[in-house]
């Protein structure tokens, strides 16, 4: 079943905002995002900006080949402690972003929903507890998506033609 036309409730969006706020504050990091991919566009649905406003809710990320795009195309997490120390397999430096950690978020049918990511303008050494926390919050968002998905496809009234 297609997930492209499923609408998210404000309740879930607010809940996920608390997730990005908590991640950013606990990690003391510049930005945290939840993105959603629809029709080859990536939209920011939740954002935390520590100092300067780098990202905005509703913003469409247009550049291809960036870190979130890499998470989605590889369908696995990416952790970059310092982009300046990378080999050729990753996208080059994006704006003034030096460090990035992103996890793919999936619908229960396996479709990619988007990403949960944190990024900073300085080198980071993402500790195991931060990686575990990101994994936990990714799974929490996916649990919400499972409920949304089930409500959309399995709890609709059935009609008889008799």
List keywords for this structure.
162 residues; alpha+beta; Beta-Lactamase; six-stranded antiparallel sheet; 6 strands; globular; disordered C terminus
Protein architecture, described:
This protein is α+β, with helices and mostly antiparallel strands. It has one domain: GAF domain (Beta-Lactamase), CATH 3.30.450. It contains 3 helices and 6 strands; from the N terminus they run H-E-E-E-H-E-E-E-H. The protein has helices spanning 10-27, 67-74, 128-153, and strands at 31-38, 41-49, 60-61, 78-80, 99-106, 112-120. Strand 5 (99-106) and strand 6 form a beta hairpin. The two termini are 26 Å apart. Residues 158-162 have low confidence and may be disordered.
Furnish the topology, listing elements before pairings:
Blueprint (H helix, E strand, L loop, with lengths): L9 H18 L3 E8 L2 E9 L10 E2 L5 H8 L3 E3 L18 E8 L5 E9 L7 H26 L9
Antiparallel strand pairs: 1-2, 1-6, 2-3, 4-5, 5-6
Helix pairs in contact: 1-3
């Amino acid at each position: 079943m297609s997930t492209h036309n499923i609408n998210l409730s404000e309740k879930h969006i607010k809940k996920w905002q608390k997730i990005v706020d908590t991640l950013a504050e606990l990690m003391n990091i510049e930005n945290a995002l939840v993105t959603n991919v629809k029709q080859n566009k990536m939209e920011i649905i939740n954002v935390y900006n520590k100092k300067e406003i780098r990202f905005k809710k509703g913003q469409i990320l247009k550049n291809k080949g960036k870190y979130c795009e890499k998470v989605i195309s590889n369908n696995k997490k990416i952790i970059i402690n310092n982009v300046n120390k990378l080999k050729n397999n990753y996208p080059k430096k994006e704006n003034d972003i030096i460090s990035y950690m992103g996890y793919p978020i999936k619908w229960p049918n396996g479709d990619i929903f988007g990403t949960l990511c944190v990024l900073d303008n300085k080198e980071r050494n993402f500790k195991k507890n931060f990686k575990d926390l990101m994994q936990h919050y990714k799974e929490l968002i996916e649990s919400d998506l499972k409920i949304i998905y089930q409500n959309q496809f399995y709890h609709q009234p059935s009609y008889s033609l008799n």
